[in-house]
Amino acid sequence: MGVSNNITAVLNFIALLASIPIIAAGIWLASKPDNECIHNFRWPVVIIGILILLVSLAGFVGAYWNKQGLLGLYLCLMAILIIILLVILVFAFVVTRQDGSFRVPGRGYKEYSLDGFSEWLRNHVTSSGSWNKIRPCLADSNVCIRLAQNYITADQFFSSHLSPLESGCCKPPTVCGYNYVNPIMWVNPSNPTGDPDCYLWNNDQNQLCYNCNACKAGLLGNLREEWRKANIILIVAVVVLIWVYLIACSAYRNAQTEDLFRRYKWGRA
């Protein structure tokens, strides 16, 4: 029984270590400018990671000091957390599967279309009620100001690889035919009817294209890229957690069997 508990303690320590990259991935997501403006997307992964850490710590204590009740509680809670994490992973994969980006001739960056993203993302992020809160938050960030500091000439800018948020919110759509002055100032469109966003572009630093569908699509593009990167870390972590959990369950059952056998033996004696 002591051997089984020692194995469970070691496994719980591994599970505790596996929670660290989950928390780190959640903090990384929450620190991004777009996620700072979408509060519902910021903390779920961090919260799940912290809960896994606490439950793993409880399992470690239960195994190390042979607290069978605490070990049983650990196994139940860890199963629930693994299921929740799997649901988040599958859901994130499904809603970020579609990619609304498209190539622009003569440009190093891509541009983005709302229709290319999942309906769920469009409804929950870019609806009028949500966007009225997100838009001023994006305007207060330094996403677009940073572009003006990093690029001087038009050639530099046109060959750059902008993030989806920068491409959608900080400049007008290429189809409008605006002339470049600097990354956040464009004048004299040659094709103002090419896209409804052409009329929404404004050189005011607080306006730019924050009211454009291109900006909404760029935000969704950013979210997609970031969640896809975070999913890689989360998939590795959840595979480790499932492996640890299955072995911990086996060790727990062995410990229970050994305990019953010991009681039976001493009872017969």
Structure description:
The protein has 269 residues and is mostly helical. The protein has two domains: 2-98 and 226-268; 101-220, no CATH class. Helix content is 66%, strand content 5%. The protein has ten helices and four strands, in the order H-H-H-H-E-E-H-H-H-H-H-E-E-H. It has a two-stranded antiparallel sheet. Strands 3-4 form a two-stranded antiparallel sheet. Helix 1 (2-31) runs antiparallel to helix 3 and helix 1 runs antiparallel to helix 10 (213-268). The radius of gyration is 26 Å and the shape is elongated.
Helix-strand blueprint:
Elements: H1 2-31, H2 33-36, H3 44-64, H4 68-95, E1 101-103, E2 110-112, H5 119-125, H6 128-140, H7 143-150, H8 154-158, H9 164-169, E3 179-182, E4 185-187, H10 213-268
Antiparallel strand pairs: 1-2, 3-4
Helix pairs in contact: 1-3, 1-10, 3-4, 4-10
